Structures are given as structure tokens and as C-alpha cells.
Amino acid sequence: MTTNQEPVRAAGCVLWRHGPVDGQIEIALVHRPRYDDWSHPKGKLKEGEEALAGALREVEEETGYRCSPGIRLPSAYYEVGGRPKVVVYWEAEALTGTFTPNPEVDHLIWLPAPMARLRLTQDRDRDLVDAALAVLQAA
Q: Which is nearest to 83 in space by CA: 44, 48, 110?
């Protein structure tokens, strides 16, 4: 990072499920109209909020799904508006829920991992799919 500012702290999950047709792993991606991008559910942490609690809260707020967190994945480090940002991620299995479009997230799609990699806007998010798959295949 090129700045001495405190980083923006955020957290999220690579949300996955076993597909309803073939049981293969599917990854949830969210579309944010503000940025017109496809990404993993994530968001800024509240003051004093632990990263895992924030990740679970953000997943539920953005996707409507409760989830079971698994292994922590690599964090993402980048700048937004000249300020450093760190996003802590976990792989998490979707449990129950229903997506409802909202001003922050207008679409949610479930895709097989190779298709999810192609749909993601940022390369750093593709790396997270690979990291989550490595964890899930090792289990």
C-alpha cells in the first residue's frame, strides 16, 4: 500500500452450495449496480465488529442466505479511492434463505466454479474461487 492511512476493514465469503441437479459445487455471485460488477458477498465491518461476524452479516444482508463458515481464505488487499482496503474471506456453505433484490445488490446467481470464475469482474475474486475449491476438495 502506498498510504499511511488506516485500511478500510471489510469481510465476506465465497458462498457455495451443492447444485440441485448434479450435486456439483456452485458459487454464489452478487451483482452490485453501483459498481456494475460481479463479486463475492462482502462489506465493511461495523465499529468493533469481528471479521467473521461481519462476513456472516454481510452474506445474509446481500444474499438473504444464512451460511456455515469453513476455512479462512486469503485476504484481499487493494486501494479504493486512494485508501487501502483489506477484505478477510471465508469459504461458507449456504444453508437456508431466499434472495431479495435490494439497492445494494440487484442480482444473485449460482454458477459452477468455472463459470463463476469467468463471470467475476476482479482477478482477485477469481483467486478466491480457486482457494475455496482447494479447501473443499481437500476435505
A: 44
Question: Does some domain include residue 1?
Answer: no
Cα separation, 107 vs 38, in Å, equals: 9
Yes or no: say if 25 and 16 are a contact pair by the CB < 8 Å rule.
Answer: yes
Task: Give dist(CA 89, CA 52) in Å, integer.
Answer: 8
CATH number at residue 130: 3.90.79.10
Q: How far apart are CA 43 and CA 17, in angstroms?
A: 21
Look at residue 54 and tell me whether its pLDDT is greater than 90.
Answer: yes
Determine the pLDDT at residue 81: 87
- Mean predicted confidence (pLDDT) in 116-138: 96
